[in-house]
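Record 1 of the preview.
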Amino acid sequence: MDGWVQDLWLVAIVDDVPDDEVRRWWNGHETPILDDLAETAPGVRLGTILTTFEVTEPDGPARRVFDLMFLRGTCPEEFDRSTSAPYVLPVLDDELRAALLAAFSSRPEDPVLAEVTPSDDLTEFLDRHQGARLATHSRAEAVRVRSQ
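->
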């Protein structure tokens, strides 16, 4: 399976970020403000994810958190009817906390080789950063992998 392996982090952003910067972030464009904030923000390493050319990505706790945060960031109206912004950095409230912990819980079908942080580390991070806006972030370049 060809793709890229990345180390995925969940970071807490407490500074203001312009709406246009948030839109570019979720659309994969250059975001100098948010990139700098994510690099220095408090964070918890979730584990590794594999991004492939396949129709479905290999699942696992870190991938499920990535997918959840992408959904919450790009479709906020589905989770908060009061928002008018098309893109957001989701605010850590009790509902998001529960969803993140559920997504991060290990499942029997998770890849055996997926590297994952202990769930207690995520729980402690979430407890310390209630009310912050969250984003997933890779603090290092993805590494290309090719199947033999």
